[in-house]
Queue: 3 jobs
Job 1
Amino acid sequence: MVTIILLLSCDFWAVKNVTGRLMVGLRWWNHIDEDGKSHWVFESRKASPQDSKTVSEAESRIFWLGLIACPVLWVIFAFSALFSFRVKWLAVVIMGVVLQGANLYGYIRCKVGSRKDLTSMATSYLGKQFLRQTTGDDQTS
């Protein structure tokens, strides 16, 4: 049980700090400022001609497939442990779900961006569309 939790922790660290940055150009972390407030930082590498050489489509698909499949697998393990009444293994399974889920959540936030950015982008886009329709400036291409 201890070995599995240690391996889960090593996997969490490796995915968060190494493979995410190298395979897809994404990273996330927690920063605590001088006031003691916690700030989550989600970064995505800027697209440049050199990045297309370093980040391949196949590596990106493998990364995302593994990132999505692992939490699903741990949830299946959780139901299996729960319904077979193996409560002692439930702690390990919950640890797996939490660590893998945290990585999935962090990388989705990196890929999509923060919700504030999405809201402001959507509002800006809808505002432009509304303005274009009210002024009669329909550009068809």
Note: The beta strands are 26-32, 38-44.
Job 2
Amino acid sequence: MAWIWMLLVAGAVLLWAVSLGRILSSPTPYSLPPSPRFLPPLGDRRSRNVLLVLAHPDDESMFFTPTILFLKSKGHSIHVLCMSLGNADGLGDTRKQELYDACATLKIPAEQVAVLDHQKLQDGFHEKWDHGLLAELTMEQIQLWDIDTIVTFDSYGVSGHPNHRDVHHGICKLLHENQRGNIEAWELVSLNMFRKYSGAVDIWLSSLISSSSKQLMYCLVNCSPSRTFEAMAAHRSQWVCARTSETN
């Protein structure tokens, strides 16, 4: 029986190595399936103005770095709207600066980053964010930056954080009320626990699901994991082993 277990372990290690090689095989970020239909130029504009809508500082590094790197590799202009300071632990000002530092690492100019501190949008698991207010504040940035594309959380919010989920519903409300229909929106699909922590191996399943889905769905491959680490390293206040409060 021992040789069977050894064979299974060797197979798992080989699969992981092949999967990692698949991810790192390209010098630039890419999508699966490859498709020119994913964020093509709009009219005479070769690039898009993309608004990444977040709940807290560090969301951009923890969840959206592959998306940011892919979009920038295609020449699109990335703007960031963070709905709160992430002040659940009283570190709001620190976390705000960390967000600017992380965005600098990701080559997003400071003038294209907005961090809000609204009384009704405070960080916390038990804080209920008003969807109408979220839609209103997002529209202000859309008009300011001439945004044509939004990227944000899906209805589960990746980690399940209520603030993430409220941001999703706020964007849905904005899209529903936007009668001009001139805003395109994409959401980051939440994964189950097994897929989330399967690492490089999940690229095969993600590729299959993206290719066979009846909805438009793409797997954006981060071929430079070190860039994600560098961006996340900017959020030094969040590098702790245990949390005593309910924050992101």
Note: The chain has nine helices and seven strands.
Job 3
Amino acid sequence: MASKDQVILGYWDIRGFAEPSRLLLHYTKTPFTNKLYHFGDAPDFKREEWLKEKNSLGLDFPNLPYLIDGDLKLSQAKTILTHLGRKFKLMGNNERETSLIELLIDQSNDLRQELNNVCYRAINFDAVSKKFCDETLPIHLKLFEDFLKRQGKKWLIGDNLTAADFQVFEYLDHCWILSNDNWAEYPKILAYMKAFRELPELKKYLESEHAKRPINGKMAKFGGKAVQHEEKKKEEPAKTDESEKSATT
């Protein structure tokens, strides 16, 4: 039985929608039990590990992820992240900042849901992922790039991290893994993500357990195994008749 001070975060053994909260807990050096559930193998990918416990945890709305924080039991990823944000004073210094943090959490969730549709629901994955990377993702990236430019701060809201940073970084990183572009058009995002990866409180975790955990469940068409970003090599322009002629003279 969990002690009243014990923190338990339950989720699948993937990064998915719980990783922002895991990052926050690691950043704040909060001892917690990282309760992991595993999918069965193909073709059924059974969820028995979770289902046999689902209704015995005392959750009002049983779902993954869930958080048990002493006698408080929560589900829903955003609720968990904002609860932890308030607990560790990472929800801004005033009402305006809090509202912007909540906006950024919702905005980045929209991006992750779009990525989910690609990774889990696409029938023709290659075509759908290409359209996502070529058309949908740039729209989102420009919005975040412009926001960072307007703010002009080290992090999203100011010179200190907030709950939003853990989710925005994580979900941008999911898209970075899928994308084979170098994001050169988004220098603020690249600098932001680089600075986040170098955080002393998170660097070791990001390079170890975090990097080894897949972003999606094993039934996904992409991200069901831990993969890294691979930049697509630019194709050399085809030789014209004139270039071929000059090469021989």
Note: The first strand starts at residue 7 and ends at 12.
